[in-house]
Design a protein that fits this description.
- This protein is of the alpha/beta class and 556 residues long.
- 26% of the residues lie in helices and 24% in strands.
- The protein is built from 13 helices and 27 strands.
- Helix 2 packs across helix 11 and helix 11 crosses helix 12.
- The chain starts with 8 loop residues before the first helix and ends with a helix.
- The protein binds adenosine-5'-triphosphate and magnesium ion (MG).
- The site of adenosine-5'-triphosphate has 15 residues, from helix 2 and strand 8.
Length: 556
């Protein structure tokens, strides 16, 4: 697939750089997560892009934790991020931390002060904002702007030593308070934060801002192509300014469009709220757009990479349909998932002319799409479970399943004919009685009968009980983050439905967490880690067909 498509704009840039001998033919990218949450599928896009670009041109990719914000960061997130990148199929060249560069970044700041290009500011955040001006009117110079180099050096050192309280002073770059680009109006370089850092502990109480940390970290690592999302376009002149004034390795920043999916939110801050307020069971809740949630839901790494490839690299923001992600996993699982029988809404069916106590081991193909998948044995007896919806007492026309006097094939087994039912006091069917045609056995049918419907079943005495978790989209609107009001008011209250008494074929008792199956006629399911020796738990990964696409097809 990737061989045939034309080059994306980043590949074009890399090829031009290689052709012109820039960076000595070297390609080094980086993936720079802030360890303040679990990765989501948007990050997967950035990972596939950064690692993929380097792989394609014999380059390498660093994993750099952008850990300059001590309050929100945690090693739990560092560990989960590493696990998710590896699971997606990528391995980094070096594991690095922006916090490892704190001393170097401090020295860079000192160098800029000495050049008269940075100063210590006394004003509060509000005062700084008021002096900033607007996009159409220039800002005003702070009185601190004229401080001497000596005074700035002294104050900056005392900031580091902890002589000032949070917010009391900042370090600013001295650029141009009338610059059309607001980011160039004497941006902040350092702030005071007396906070414990997950790696540097209490060593520092001043922390570099993103703009002063990111580009310099790229440069320290000799990153050749620093790829980020579109919102950083206005930061690029500042990125370049610091590198130029410091006269350090000229890394370059390139921007592409974020990946957005409909019916979900894609920001760690929002996802964290869902977790902390208990709207979901955790970062890996199968309804979450996190890598860990998708993994638990049954998504494969290949299906996520495939989505990223299909979406491509764009220069304009847009929202991708969730159904495209579902298409990617469905397509893969159709090829790779073994078929199994699971009855999610069971009703008992007794075959009155099948010998009581007799058990046959019937042969069933594991996956008709994969000739190498082999087959398995299914126990068959006179008492089965079938889906309640597969029997109707007064069926409409074109209902090709079971009803009184109607015939249907039991998958991998026999043709049966509906005879009668038992009901409880409320009129609900408790048992269906049927007869079977002994000569209609699948694989050796000489009954001469043809039937239109085939239904799935399990043998009551042999079936295993399972809990099945059915998921729907987490939000009721396409773009919850853009709606007015709290995005959490658009949570879909019916996004999880738990079926606690499903019956599955007995072989599934051997399945391990993460194993994936197609439950015939029902969808693709994977074994959840909540599974115990007592109870097997399945997550519905995706339905067999796009329910929405089916509706539009019907309308045609
Ligand atoms: P969030 O808002 O979810 O916290 P972020 O951009 O703050 O996202 P970072 O940890 O800073 O998260 O991101 C690491 C890298 O992943 C950055 O290069 C960022 O541009 C990229 N990234 C984050 N979200 C997306 C997305 N939706 N699509 C593509 N790339 C993304
Ligand atoms: Mg961020």
């Amino acid at each position: 697939m990737s061989e045939e498509r034309s080059l994306n704009f980043l590949e074009q840039i890399v090829e031009e750089d290689l052709a012109s001998g820039k960076n000595g033919g070297r390609v080094l990218t980086r993936f720079p997560p802030e360890p303040n949450g679990y990765l989501h599928i948007g990050h997967a896009k950035s990972i596939v892009l950064n690692f993929g670009l380097a792989q394609k041109y014999n380059g390498k990719t660093n994993l750099r934790f952008d850990d300059t914000n001590p309050v929100t960061e945690d090693t739990e997130y560092v560990d989960s991020i590493k696990e998710d990148i590896r699971w997606l199929g990528f391995e980094w060249e070096k594991e690095l931390y922006a916090s490892d560069y704190f001393e170097q970044l401090y020295q860079y700041a000192v160098a800029l002060i000495k050049k008269g290009l940075a100063y210590v500011e006394d004003a509060t955040a509000e005062e700084i904002a008021a002096m900033k001006g607007t996009p159409t009117t220039p800002g005003t110079n702070s009185p601190c702007r004229s401080r001497s180099v000596e005074e700035n050096l002294d104050l900056f050192e005392r900031m580091r030593k902890g002589e000032f309280k949070d917010g009391e002073k900042t370090l600013r770059a001295k650029i141009d308070m009338a610059a059309p680009n607001m980011h160039m109006r004497d941006p902040l370089m350092y702030r005071i934060k007396h906070a414990h850092h997950h790696r540097t502990g209490d060593k520092w109480c001043i922390y570099p801002m993103y703009d002063f940390a990111h580009g310099q970290s790229d440069s320290i690592e000799n990153i050749t192509h620093s790829v980020c999302t579109l919102e950083f376009i206005p930061h690029r002149p500042l990125y370049d300014w610091f590198i130029q004034e410091l006269d350090i390795f000229p890394s370059h920043q390139y921007e592409f469009a974020r990946l957005n999916l409909n019916y979900t939110v894609m920001s760690k801050r929002k996802l964290k709220q869902l977790v902390e307020e208990g709207h979901v069971s955790g970062w890996d809740d199968p309804r979450m757009p996190t890598i860990s949630g998708l993994r638990r839901r049954g998504y494969t790494a290949a299906s996520i990479r495939s989505l990223c490839e299909r979406v491509g690299i764009q220069k304009r923001d847009n929202i991708i349909e969730y159904s495209l992600l579902e298409f990617c996993i469905r397509e893969e699982l159709n090829r790779t998932a073994n078929r199994a029988m699971a009855v999610l809404d069971p009703v008992k069916l007794v075959i009155t002319n099948y010998p009581e106590g007799q058990v046959e081991e019937l042969e069933a193909e594991n996956n008709p799409e994969d000739p190498n998948s082999g087959s398995r044995k299914l126990p068959f007896s006179n008492t089965l479970y079938i889906e309640r919806e597969d029997f109707m007492e007064n069926p409409p026309k074109k209902y090709f399943r079971l009803g009184p006097g109607m015939m249907v094939r039991l998958k991998n087994a026999y043709i049966i004919k509906g005879e009668s039912v038992d009901k409880d006091a409320d009129g609900n069917i408790t048992t269906i009685y049927a007869t079977y045609l002994p000569e209609s056995k699948s694989g050796g049918d000489h009954s001469g009968m043809t039937v239109k419907g085939t239904i799935h079943w399990v043998s009551a005495a042999h079936a295993a009980t399972a809990e099945v978790r059915m998921y729907d989209r987490l939000f009721t609107v396409e773009n919850p983050a853009s709606e007015e009001g709290d995005f959490k008011s658009f949570i879909n209250k019916d996004s999880l439905q738990v079926i606690s008494n499903a019956f599955v074929e007995p072989g599934l008792l051997q399945a391990k967490p993460g194993d994936r199956f197609q439950f015939m006629r029902k969808g693709y399911f994977s074994v959840d880690p909540d599974t115990t020796s007592e109870k097997i738990v399945f997550n519905r990964t995706v339905t067999l067909k796009d329910a929405w696409a089916k509706e539009t097809a019907k309308a045609k």
